[in-house]
Amino acid sequence: MIEPHAPAPPGNTPPRGGPARLPVRPGTGRFLVLACVFVCAACGLVYELELVALASYLIGDSVTQASVVLSVMVFAMGIGSLVAKRLRRHAATGFAALEVLLALVGGCSALALYAVFAWTGNWGGLWANGPRCLLVAFSLAIGLLIGAEVPLLMELIQRVRRQDAGGAVADLFAADYVGALVGGLAFPFLLLPFLGQLTSSLLTGAVNVVAGGSLVLGLFRRDLGPRARWILLTANLAVLGVLACAAALVDDFERAARHAVYGDDVRVARQTDVQEVVLTGGTRGRPLDLFLDGRLRVGGRDERRYHEALVHPAMNGPHARVLILGGGDGLAAREVLRHPRVRRVDIVELDAGVVRLARSDPALSRLNEHALGDARVHVAIADAFTWLRTVPRASYDVVVCDLPDPGITASTKLYSQEFYGLARRALAPGGRLAVHAGRVSSRPRAFWTAATTIRAAGLRVSAYRVAARDAGFATGPDRSAGTSRAPHDWGFVLAAAGRRPALGLAPGKPSPRTLTTARLAADARAAERTRIRGLRVSTLVHPRY
Questions:
Q1: 285 Cβ partners below 8 Å, 6+ apart?
Q2: Does residue 405 have an active-site annotation?
Q3: Over the chain (545 residues), what is each successive 10-residue block's mean pLDDT?
Q4: Of the listed 289, 402, 405, 523, which one is catalytic?
Q5: Is 244 annotated as a binding residue?
Q6: Helix (H) or strand (E) holding 464
């Protein structure tokens, strides 16, 4: 065993366990190693969160995507730690190579995922499981590289200054966990809002490669021969060049990918504090489509059929005071305001950006007939669940839930028993609740789970479905303007306390263009044929969708 201050034996790499030939004092060297651990841990967590966020956006069901990414990555980290044991004799060189690969793979992962999604359509045929396979592949690769860092960093910190194993582990993991905290907070509060998903991953890769390369080529350069130093320097510069070029072209890439996903008629594309909002069409006779986080929420060809079916059955009774949960596009409010006895309409929308577009975009405001400018309409920017908790009892004659599909994880709480209990409390005697509950033909279990849950909240229900025409729009996990625009139908539930609400339309005018009482009766019979019995109630702690 070599004494702490004995000269190293000849050769490029001292034996494992020997002291490193440092250009600084051991205390300074130890600090620099821990600083590198801190930075690499922050970068590693950003890669994880980037994969989770992008997979949730592209594939849907954020709980599943987070579970897949984190479980695969943790498993791969264990494998990577085992594999790295063979590299401990060449710890400096091995660590530098790992950081080059990690920066390249992690930094480009979001770009690659989005590119494959954008240019392979709706993942049909050969790419039916494309997003999940690619997600698993990136999670596995990044996890292997992150896991391999730990044994090599342990070796490097011990070679800077030998200490007991317990103390070295404590120092290493303290720096690692603090770095992970910083990375975890930086991603949602700094990187994502200011740089976006693609640029933030590229910047993280650049920071990663600079940190790893600087540590090895600066602190441990005497452990490397001239050839090894040049190879590592060239590899680091090459990866930095790739990441820099990608960052310079990322805006052009996003525009091209957006056109591939949404078509060539994109008029508005902006990232709000809540989601990505894209408007296509609406000019030169082309129907307007509104996408929220890639899901087609308003399809101009068929939106009237959807909104009339959602609103008008609920207006068959007292309707002076109406609450719309969601509906920031103003289209449900347009149908409500057709009834002359309406005195007040409250809209609770989470995304202020959607409301601004509904008021300012010429095509969208024309489609909603400037409903948000009506003096009777009052808009609150808030979470629907939280807002309902503050509403006095018996405040509204009608509550309309114009919300995303229950299959989307973010909206699951808005289809829970607790949520419907709050909605029931807000209803005046004789009031009615109208709920969009997803597709009946393709997702009958989710639809009838919503009906069962509403009933469990103390309301009587009448379920019905409305068939879409040849070019409808999906309110569920649809992602493409191309092949999957038209669901077979939309499912709705009309509910009331006490007596089961009768499906019908308010007498006299206005008469919906696409709906009649006879048609509603047929729609109810069609929905009843799909009924699934014995379903469990969905609650906040036991979501069933």
A1: none
A2: no
A3: 38 49 86 96 96 82 84 95 88 94 96 86 47 87 95 90 82 94 95 91 97 94 90 96 96 89 84 87 86 82 92 96 97 96 97 95 95 97 96 96 82 94 96 94 93 97 84 42 54 94 88 91 95 95 89
A4: 402
A5: no
A6: strand 460-467
Task: Provide the greatest CA pair distance for the chain.
Answer: 100
Pull the structure tokens for residue 424: 């029931």
Closest by CA to 196, choosing from 291, 114, 297, is: 114
Domain total in the chain: 2
Q: Is 349 annotated as a binding residue?
A: yes
Give me the phi and psi of 96, to 5 degrees please: -60, -40
Q: What is the CATH number of the domain that holds 66?
A: 1.20.1250
Q: What single string gives the DSSP state of each residue in 57-80?
A: HHH--HHHHHHHHHHHHHHHHHHH
- On whether residue 287 sits in a domain, the answer given is no
Pull the structure tokens for residue 220.
């441990």
- Whether omega before 318 lies within 30 degrees of 0, making that bond cis, reads no
Query: 247 with 305, same domain?
Result: no
Known binding residue 383? Answer is: yes
Q: Return the SS3 of 265.
A: coil
Which of 173, 434, 458 lies closest to 319, judged by CA?
434
User: Does 536 map to a domain?
Assistant: no
127 and 244: one domain?
yes
Give the torsion sign (CA, 340, 343, 349, 355). positive
Sequence-ordered list of residues with C-beta below 8 angstroms from that of 441, at least 6 positions apart, any chain: 465, 487, 488, 489, 530
Torsion sign over Cα 417, 423, 425, 428: negative
Binding residue per annotation — 307? Answer: yes
Is 275 annotated as belonging to a binding site? yes
Alpha carbon of 49 to those of 192, 200, 280, 337: distances in Å?
A: 10, 11, 30, 43
How far is residue 506's CA from residue 517's CA, in Å, rounded to a whole number? Answer: 10
Residue with tokens 């069962």: 452
Q: Is the pTM of the predicted complex or chain greater than 0.90?
A: no
Q: Is 5 annotated as a binding residue?
A: no
What torsion, rounded to 10 degrees, do the Cα atoms 133, 138, 139, 140 define? 90
Place of tokens 């930094």: 107
What pLDDT does 15 receive? 41
Provide the total of helices (H) and of strands (E) in the chain, helices listed first: 15, 11
Domain hosting residue 464, numbered range: 300-528
The answer to the question of residue 14 being in a domain is: no
- Contact yes or no for 301/282 (Cβ under 8 A): no
